[in-house]
């Protein structure tokens, strides 16, 4: 009997996904705590036909150059592909696939959690209770801001942006959005299209980022654009840390020009700028956007569907390159 193909995974997957993988492949699982250098990744992937990667792995041109020639497919356990040099993968003839669609609701929920958390000062309140320094109910204790009737600006009206708009509308928010072009779903929701980001920012009491990472969106939220937001605005980022210039956001949070920030993603994860940890008006989550059991299992199954397709000579449903 021929041997089953060998595949490697850089991390641990939900149990049901690991079981499905081991039914059809010899599986080399990774270590959740590992920080893979290009050499370590190449060693982990030696002789494999498929390598399942995650946003916590760096697949730049140097790492891709070191991967073994046996690799045909590299599914990423994410919708974002900014951790992979797609041109380098394509040049090596490695098919890259991703997981669009299945993490939309989970990520939109986390954006709302951050919006509520930072505007209603949930993080500060939780810290107060845990520290044992709560002195009891007071009329002026931890007064926050209501979401209802505030204007939410959304940058990037793809699936996740739309799902956030639906939720925010239910909270009574007015929605304005900037995207390359207007989207019919957003129009149906009554969201106002802003062709110019700079013209939109002064109208946003809350700004939420939902655009993919690209050279055009890197450092999008810099000091100049933060200054265009009205004083007391809130910033929510569940997209990618690289969209935000940390020095500028930290300065704006410190001066109070930005009243609060809810962040799930950071440049250089997991080593975020340590100054964020000292800011009471920042609510900080560890990249939890897609972290529900339902979503992570769906992502894993999608990863395996793509792996199976390529290794059986079929077109993968979610090919990126
Ligand atoms: C993605 O899929 O790109 C997310 O950031 C992971 O939650």
Overview of this structure, please?
Helices cover 35% and strands 14% of the residues. It has twelve helices and twelve strands. The two termini are 33 Å apart. By secondary structure, it is an alpha/beta fold. The mean pLDDT is 98. β1, α1 (15-24) and β2 form a beta-alpha-beta unit. It has a seven-stranded parallel beta sheet. It has a three-stranded parallel beta sheet with strand order 2-1-3, with helices on one face. The chain has a two-stranded parallel sheet with strand order 4-5. α1 (15-24) runs parallel beside α12 and α5 (104-119) packs across α7. The chain has two domains: 6-102 and 293-311, NAD(P)-binding Rossmann-like Domain (Rossmann fold, 3-Layer(aba) Sandwich), CATH 3.40.50; 104-284, Rossmann fold (3-Layer(aba) Sandwich), CATH 3.40.50.720. (2R)-2,3-dihydroxypropanoic acid (DGY) binds next to loops. The site of (2R)-2,3-dihydroxypropanoic acid has 7 residues, from loops.
Keywords for this structure?
12 strands; 7-stranded parallel beta sheet; 14% strand; 3-stranded parallel beta sheet; alpha/beta; 321 residues; Rossmann fold; binds (2R)-2,3-dihydroxypropanoic acid; 2 domains; globular; 12 helices; 35% helix
Note the topology:
Layout: E1 6-9, H1 15-24, E2 26-28, H2 38-44, E3 50-52, H3 61-66, E4 73-75, H4 86-91, E5 95-97, H5 104-119, H6 122-131, E6 151-155, H7 159-170, E7 174-178, H8 184-188, E8 192-193, H9 197-200, E9 206-209, H10 223-228, E10 233-237, H11 246-255, E11 258-263, E12 282-284, H12 293-311
Parallel strand pairs: 1-2, 1-3, 4-5, 6-7, 6-9, 7-8, 9-10, 10-11, 11-12
Helix pairs in contact: 1-12, 5-7
The chain binds (2R)-2,3-dihydroxypropanoic acid.
The site of (2R)-2,3-dihydroxypropanoic acid has 7 residues, from loops.
């Amino acid at each position: 009997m021929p041997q089953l193909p060998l595949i490697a995974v850089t991390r641990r997957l939900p149990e049901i996904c690991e079981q499905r993988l081991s039914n059809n492949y010899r599986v080399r699982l990774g270590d959740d705590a590992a920080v893979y250098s290009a050499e370590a990744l190449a060693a982990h992937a030696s002789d494999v036909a498929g390598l399942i990667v995650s946003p916590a792995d760096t697949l730049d041109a140097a790492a891709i150059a070191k991967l073994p020639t046996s690799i045909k497919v590299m599914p990423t356990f994410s919708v974002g592909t900014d951790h992979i040099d797609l041109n380098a993968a394509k040049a090596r003839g490695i098919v890259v696939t991703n997981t669009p669609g299945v993490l939309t609701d989970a990520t939109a929920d986390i954006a709302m959690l951050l919006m509520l958390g930072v505007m209603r000062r949930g993080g500060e309140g939780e810290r107060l209770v845990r520290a044992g320094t709560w002195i009891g109910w007071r009329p002026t204790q931890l007064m926050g801001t209501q979401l209802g009737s505030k204007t939410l600006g959304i940058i990037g009206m793809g699936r996740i942006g739309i799902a956030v708009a639906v939720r925010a509308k239910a909270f009574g928010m007015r929605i304005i959005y900037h995207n390359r072009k207007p989207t019919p779903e957003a129009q149906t929701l009554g969201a106002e299209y802003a062709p110019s980001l700079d013209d939109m920012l002064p109208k946003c009491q809350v700004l939420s980022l939902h655009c993919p990472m690209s050279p055009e969106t890197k450092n999008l939220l810099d000091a100049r654009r933060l200054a265009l937001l009205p004083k007391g605005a809130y910033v929510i980022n569940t997209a990618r840390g690289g969209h935000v210039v940390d020095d500028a956001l930290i300065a704006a949070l410190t001066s109070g020009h930005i009243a609060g920030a809810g962040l799930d993603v950071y440049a250089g994860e997991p080593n975020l700028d340590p100054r964020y940890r000292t800011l009471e008006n920042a609510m900080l989550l560890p990249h939890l956007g897609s972290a529900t059991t339902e979503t992570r299992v769906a992502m894993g199954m999608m990863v395996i569907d793509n792996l199976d397709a390529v290794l059986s000579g079929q077109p993968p449903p979610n090919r990126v390159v």
